[in-house]
What we know:
Layout: H1 2-25, H2 29-49, H3 65-85, E1 94-98, E2 104-108, H4 109-133, H5 143-150
Antiparallel strand pairs: 1-2
Helix pairs in contact: 1-3, 1-4, 2-3, 2-4
Amino acid sequence: MLEMLAKYQAHDRWANKRVLETLTKNPNPAALRLFAHILGAQRVWLLRLRGEDATATPIWPALTVEECSPLQQENVAAYTETLSLLGPADLARVVTYRNTQGIAFQTPVIEVLMQVFSHGVYHRGQIALVLRQAGTHPVNTDFITFVRETSNA
């Protein structure tokens, strides 16, 4: 399972990099808002995984394209480190946190990580739609494309 999580994280990194490159070349405020949300939500979940208070961290940050790049790099480094420190038993560890409305929840680490990686997929699909509606050809961020492009590389 840890190997698959590392692959999902690698896909997330690859896909976010492609979206960021697209937004750098083709600025779009609606798409940028969604992308900043992906990065902000990743940061919030990371703080929760670490047992830190995330209530002051915006889940919908207002970022420029230039501000997204360092946050993307910080998130990648932090999730890479987090995954490298996990053992199989850690995946069942329960994370206690409060959501943005202040409601307390308890969620196993594995489910938090699956939320992080699937959440990005969801919003990158929205970004593709927004870009397409604006007349910009969106970049392909499908998992299978990632696998095809990175296997045996």
